[in-house]
Amino acid sequence: MHVSNDPSAPPAPLIDFDAFVAVDIRVGRVVAAEPYPEARKPAMKLEIDFGSVIGVKKSSAQITEHYTPEVLVGRLVAGVVNFPPRQIGKYISEVLTLGFPDEAGAVVLFGPDKDVPLGGRLF
Q: What is the rounded distance in angstroms from the CA atom of residue 97 to the CA atom of residue 102?
C-alpha cells in the first residue's frame, strides 16, 4: 500500500475504529541521534525512549532537511511501536517515527507541544 503525502490527494478509504486502535502510536523522547550516511536517502538513526513498558527503540528517519542530531535529542516525537522491525540498509528500525510533509515534501516531525508522560498512547 502506498501512502501519498500530497495534500491534494483524496482521503483514504473509510476504516472502522478497531482498525485505528490496532495502530499503537506512542510518545517518546529522542535520547540519541546521529546521521545515517549509508542509507539510500539522507536519514538519521534515532534512539527513542518510550517509557518503562516499551523501553528505548531504534528508528531510521528521513528528517535531515529540518533537523540535526543536536536539536533532536530531548525532543518529544510520536511513533508507531507495533509494526514489525524493518531493515534499513544495515540498520534495524524498530518504530516508525511520524511526521508531516512541508511544502517541499521534507518531513516535519509530529509530537506533542507540551511535556507528557513517555509511552502515552495517541487517542
A: 16
